[in-house]
Amino acid sequence: MKKYVRSWIIVVLVVTTIFFLPHAFRKTDHQPLVAVLLMNDARQEKLTGLRDGLAQMGYTEGKNITFITANARSQRDDLEHLATELVAQKPDVLVAGGRVEAEVLAPQAQKVNIPLIFMGAAATWNVQQSDLGARGAITGIDNYHVDLAGKRLELLVKLVPGIQRVLVLYDPRVVPGPASLAVVQEAARKLNILLHVVAVTSLKELKANLEMIPPEAADAVLVMSGFLLEEGMGSIGKAAIAKGWPVMGLNIADAEAGALAAYGCPFVEQGRQAARLVAKVLAGKDVAAIPIETPDRLELVVNLGVARQLGIEISPTVLGLASQILDRGVNNNVVLMVE
Question: Which Pfam families match (predicted)?
Answer without folding.
Answer: ABC_sub_bind
